[in-house]
Amino acid sequence: MPRADGDAPPLPASGRRTIAPWLLLVIPPLCWAGNFVVGRAVSADIPPAALTFWRWMVAALVLAPFAVTDAWALRGTLGRLLRRHATLLLLLAATGVVGFQFFVYQGLKTTTAINGVLIIATIPVAIPAVAFLLDGTRIGLRQALGIAVSLAGVTIVVLRGDLRLSEDLHFAPGDFWVSLAVPAWAIYTVMLRRRPADLPPVLLLFASIVAGLLMLLPGYVTEYVHQGGFVPTLSALLAIGYVGVFASVIAFACWNAGVAQVGAAKAGLFIHLMPVFATLLAIAFLGEQLHLYHLPGIAAVALGIWLSTTARPPGSRPTRS
Questions:
Q1: Interhelix angle for 21-41 vs 251-262, to 10°?
Q2: Which tens digits make up the pLDDT trace of 262-287?
Q3: Structure confidence at residue 4 (pLDDT)
Q4: Which of 35, 100, 158, 318, by CA, is between 20 and 30 Å from 240?
């Protein structure tokens, strides 16, 4: 029977949640907004496979002490658990760790930031479609309206309130690569709903990262042989450090936890905060100005998220007191 995306999974054994799910889901797009800027800034200096590989190597090193603690607690059953959930781990690694990140970095080499953000902004539309195909999950009219309103807000921000700018958009080869990132992230997000309860979240993330690094290694070696490596300048190391810690460990841990609490479709809508945060970061750190068109765009994104996240599951009825 089709499942409503708003159906929340069982609470943890403690019976309470320590962090509000909406706070968890606001943090990733904030980190990823910076990742988008950093990825574009170093696209000429660090090849995409190298940036993806070292990003996750840093993340693995940061998570290792915590993962080892979880692994030691499960030392008697760890091997059996990993074998049982191997398919899920490999799918999470292929889509979220390898596919999405590599496609974005590869695309940013030959596409503009505007094109890239517009393409990534379709992820909240793709997630319900993938959820329906894989799980039969449905969304209600209010949630669909929220996605549409939020997408309109993203368009206002990206096109700077002038629809005539859309006439100047020229699609480059990089747009194809960024487009591949959309279904990759949609599949990753939907599959998180199947996160096993017997595998701690940190250990699940660490295992998927390790599997992703093994998948990335042949491509990284091939890229190194044909294109060479990169010069480990201070700016390059800082960029890898940022995408490894903030855009990987912190963002993915929060995203995984948030999706587990509210579902894939509602969580996916928070991707629309990326261009909003990118705009605010540019104003705060790059001295760019706040323009009038920013206000209705940001307001539309906020309204769309509110409409979607407050929507009841399809078929449910309000309770009477």
A1: 140
A2: 888 888 888 888 878 877 777 776 66
A3: 45
A4: 158
